[in-house]
Each structure stands twice: as structure tokens, then as C-alpha cells.
UniProtKB/TrEMBL annotation:
<keyword id="KW-0254">Endocytosis</keyword>
<keyword id="KW-0653">Protein transport</keyword>
<dbReference type="InterPro" id="IPR036168">
    <property type="entry name" value="AP2_Mu_C_sf"/>
</dbReference>
<dbReference type="InterPro" id="IPR050431">
    <property type="entry name" value="Adaptor_comp_med_subunit"/>
</dbReference>
<dbReference type="InterPro" id="IPR018240">
    <property type="entry name" value="Clathrin_mu_CS"/>
</dbReference>
<dbReference type="InterPro" id="IPR043512">
    <property type="entry name" value="Mu2_C"/>
</dbReference>
<dbReference type="Pfam" id="PF00928">
    <property type="entry name" value="Adap_comp_sub"/>
</dbReference>
<dbReference type="GO" id="GO:0005886">
    <property type="term" value="C:plasma membrane"/>
</dbReference>
<dbReference type="InterPro" id="IPR022775">
    <property type="entry name" value="AP_mu_sigma_su"/>
</dbReference>
<dbReference type="GO" id="GO:0006897">
    <property type="term" value="P:endocytosis"/>
</dbReference>
<dbReference type="GO" id="GO:0030131">
    <property type="term" value="C:clathrin adaptor complex"/>
</dbReference>
<dbReference type="InterPro" id="IPR028565">
    <property type="entry name" value="MHD"/>
</dbReference>
<keyword id="KW-0472">Membrane</keyword>
<comment type="similarity">
    <text>Belongs to the adaptor complexes medium subunit family.</text>
</comment>
<dbReference type="InterPro" id="IPR043532">
    <property type="entry name" value="AP2_Mu_N"/>
</dbReference>
<protein>
    <recommendedName>
        <fullName>MHD domain-containing protein</fullName>
    </recommendedName>
</protein>
<dbReference type="GO" id="GO:0005905">
    <property type="term" value="C:clathrin-coated pit"/>
</dbReference>
Length: 457
């Protein structure tokens, strides 16, 4: 599988080196430093093939985390392992920096021996590894009291609830639920959606005493459809009439295309009852991931208008509309408008935000710090073009114009998924579901959010 795992700094020096195959030599390590880190041109691909060796790398700040192999392995599996390894290191000693790697190199080597067996990935869950790896660098939790007893040893030996810790006690029990989504969109000038999908994940932070059983529910369409329906056709028609008068359907749900769960979720109950029941690990963990393509709420709409006044002059007008509630505000809004390669100068006028022309990127970058819902603003750009020959102008007209891209953050779920309930049951300790402080947060970010323009260069 994986021949070796290496950690480089920005100079190309090897901070961590763990070799699992005899085919990986010192020349293999130096090849990545010379061909990728010290390359004259920027390396955009995360996979590099050098001398019959494949290198999969992930860059975190000024640190390169690399896995090399000489076999035909699954690249997606290698990158999934690298990201899990980075998250594991972050849970132990914080950010992945050169100083932290040097200060915790003993811990890193011990973790590599546990999560890799002759190059094959093994357990990468921090909750499992922290039960028997107790090196320096582990961050202590304030207000946490852990007692080691015979029950803990029996749990570890029998592999029952290995992701949990026994003997946890908190003065105040709290539970945090974060729903993060990434929305991707491709639309055209009339506003028609060509493709759109949302990839989301539910991240939880559990600070609960004991080992409570939690039940988590969302407005999943399958769950709502399985609820009690009207017994007679008359009752069903009456319910539809009431829904039309109110203007919305209170039992409408969101169709999830596919989803994956954490190992703590009881899949048997989910398949039978469509309820997510689990015993949460202590601290932060990812409960589920999902993907949906139906009934997506678009946060923004971009309306571009390009007019070529002459061969040396072009007018670009971009109208930006927010389609979410006026009580919400989008942050870090950025619109990237491409310009022709022969652009000589640009004059910009905007009603909101700060637009700038970046000649190195051949684009106008329009940044808006905060944008409220149900608002509209526009940007006007007068572009001066350099004179070009007829052959070059004909070639440029044949080329399609790059789409307008956006980056943003909005405090709601674009997929429409919402948390319906979160119940905590702990019969052994003297606290109930009402004693647990619960917090829910929604945040959606832009993925590949693009709008095609009308004319060609």
C-alpha cells in the first residue's frame, strides 16, 4: 500500500520520516524535494509521478505531509488517510506547524506505528487512540475529571464502545451541533440552474457526564413520509387544503441522496426507524456526512451583462442579488469577474464593497465584507483593450469566456436540512434531557459557485 510517510518544512528538510517498504530510499525522499518543493513553477496537482513513484501530498501552511508509493493504489483512500492523520495530530498538539512537529516528534512516531501497519491504514480515530497513547502533547480539558477503573480496561480489551471514555464527569453538561455545508452551482445568463449540489456534514461537541444515549433527528423526507398519514381520503384532502391556505407544507422534508455515519451510530435503528441513535464520544467528532441535489436554496444570483462598444472598449455590468432572509447577513462575499487577456486598464464603479483589478489574474475581484438578505447591488467596469491583429481577435472570439465565480459564507443551511430534536438519556446519573445545554449552528460556504457569461472574447 503506502511505501512511506514524510513531513517536510518549507525548505524541503525532512522533519518526520517513516518508511514501510524497502523500495523507498533516500533518493526517493530527495526526489520530492527537488521536483515539487523546489520546483521553479507552481505545482498544482496534489499527485506527482517521479521515477515510477507516486507522491500524494497535502500542504498545511508551511508544512508538507506526503505519502509515497510505487503500487497502483487508490488515490482517494490515500488522501482520506492523510487528512485523517492531520486531524489526529491537530487533536493532540494543535496546528500542524514546524515547531509543533519538532516538539512532538516522539508522539508522532508512536501514532504512525498505531495508524499504519506495513503501509496499510488502521484506526485513525482520536477517541480510540487516546485511550492507550498518553505521550506529552495531549491537551487537557478544563473541568474534566477522569477515573481509571476495571470497567475501562474491560471496555478496551473487548472493543466495546472503544470510542468512549468511562468515568467522565462535568459540572455542566452541554452539547454543540454544527451543520456545515458547501454549495456548488453552475448557472447561465437567464438564471437557469445547470447543476447544483450541496455537501454537508454534522459536527458535534459533546461534554456530557457518563455514557448517555442520544437521539438526533432532522427533517429527512423519508422520516417524515413514514410518520402517521391521514387514514381516509377526506382527511388527506382537508390537510392539503389547509397546507395551501397557509402557503407552505409543514411536513415537507429534504431528500438526502447519500449519507455516511460515525461508528457510534446504531445503523440497525436507522434502517428500521430512521432515527439516529448513538452514544457520543467525548469532545468533538463528526456524526454524519450527506449530499443532496434537490430543493436547494440558492443564496445569491449573479446577473452579468457584457457589451463590446468597440474593438478597444468593453463595458461590464454585474448585478448581485441576495435571495435569503433579510434578517441574515452574508460575510466574506467575493465576486471574481474575468477580463480579456489584452486588458490595458479598468475603471470601476460599485455601489457597495471594494472592487479591484488584478492584472496578474486577468480578473476583477469585488469584495464585500457584509451583505444583508433580499438586497441588490451592482458593479460597472469600463475595460480598455490593447489593439490586436485580426487573427488574434478572431481566435479570442472563438474562445468561450470564463464564468464568474463567487465565494461567501451564509448562516443557514442551503439544503434545507434542520435539526428537529436532540434528546439525551442518562438513567444512571441524576440529570435529565432538560438539564443539558444545547447549541445549534448553521453555516454554508461556497464551493464552485459559477455563473456563465453571455459573450465571447
Amino acid at each position: 500500500m503506502i511505501g512511506g510517510v514524510f513531513v517536510y518544512n518549507h525548505k524541503g528538510e525532512v522533519l518526520i520520516s517513516r518508511v514501510f517498504r524497502d523500495s523507498v530510499t533516500r533518493a526517493t525522499i530527495d526526489a520530492f524535494r527537488v521536483s515539487v518543493i523546489h520546483a521553479r513553477h507552481a505545482v498544482r496537482s496534489p499527485v506527482s509521478n517521479i521515477a515510477r513513484t507516486s507522491y500524494c501530498h497535502v500542504k498545511k501552511g508551511a508544512v508538507w505531509v506526503v505519502a509515497c508509493t510505487q503500487q497502483n493504489v487508490n488515490a482517494a483512500l490515500v488522501f482520506e488517510f492523510l487528512h485523517k492523520m492531520i486531524d489526529l495530530f491537530s487533536s493532540y498538539f494543535g496546528d500542524i506547524t514546524e515547531e509543533n512537529v519538532k516538539n512532538n516528534f516522539v508522539l508522532i512516531y508512536e501514532l504512525l506505528d498505531e495508524i499504519l501497519d506495513f503501509g496499510y491504514p488502521q484506526k485513525t480515530d482520536s477517541g480510540i487512540l487516546k485511550t492507550y497513547i498518553t505521550q506529552q502533547g495531549i491537551r487537557s480539558t478544563v473541568g474534566l475529571h477522569v477515573t481509571c477503573n476495571m470497567r475501562t480496561c474491560t471496555c478496551t480489551c473487548t472493543c466495546m464502545y472503544m470510542y468512549c471514555k468511562f468515568g467522565l464527569f462535568y459540572r455542566s453538561n452541554s452539547f454543540f451541533v454544527d451543520e456545515f455545508e458547501i454549495i456548488s452551482l453552475l448557472s447561465n445568463i437567464p438564471g437557469q440552474v445547470l447543476s447544483a449540489h450541496v455537501s454537508g456534514r454534522v459536527v458535534m461537541k459533546s461534554f456530557l457526564s457518563g455514557m448517555p444515549e442520544c437521539k438526533f433527528g432532522m427533517n429527512d423526507k423519508l422520516l417524515i413520509d413514514r410518520q402517521a398519514k391521514p387514514s381516509t381520503p377526506e382527511a388527506q384532502s382537508l390537510e392539503q387544503q389547509l397546507a395551501k391556505r397557509s402557503g407552505h407544507n409543514p411536513k415537507s422534508g429534504v431528500a438526502i441522496d447519500d449519507c455516511t455515519f460515525h461508528q457510534c451510530v446504531k445503523l440497525s435503528k436507522f434502517e428500521s426507524e430512521r432515527s439516529i441513535s448513538f452514544i457520543p464520544p467525548d469532545g468533538e467528532f463528526e456524526l454524519m456526512r450527506y449530499r443532496t441535489t434537490n430543493d436547494i436554496t440558492l443564496p445569491f444570483r449573479v446577473i452579468p451583462l457584457v457589451r463590446e462598444a468597440s474593438r478597444q472598449h468593453m463595458e461590464i455590468k454585474v448585478v448581485l442579488k441576495s435571495l435569503f432572509k433579510p434578517t441574515l447577513n452574508a460575510q466574506h462575499v467575493e465576486v471574481k469577474i474575468p477580463t480579456p487577456p489584452n486588458t490595458a486598464g479598468v475603471k470601476l464603479i460599485s455601489l457597495k464593497g471594494r472592487p479591484r483589478y488584478k492584472s496578474g489574474e486577468n480578473a476583477i475581484v469585488w469584495k464585500i465584507r457584509r451583505f444583508p438578505g433580499m438586497k441588490e447591488t451592482q458593479l460597472t467596469a469600463d475595460v480598455e483593450l490593447l489593439p490586436s491583429s485580426t487573427t488574434e481577435s478572431s481566435k479570442s472570439k472563438q474562445q468561450t469566456r470564463p464564468p464568474i465565480s463567487m465565494n461567501f459564507e451564509v448562516p443557514f443551511a442551503c439544503s434545507g436540512l434542520k435539526v428537529r430534536y436532540l434528546k439525551v438519556f442518562e438513567p444512571k446519573l441524576n440529570y435529565s434531557d432538560h438539564d443539558v445545554v444545547k447549541w445549534v449552528r448553521y453555516l454554508s460556504k461556497s464551493g464552485l459557485y459559477e455563473t456563465r457569461t453571455q459573450s465571447n472574447y
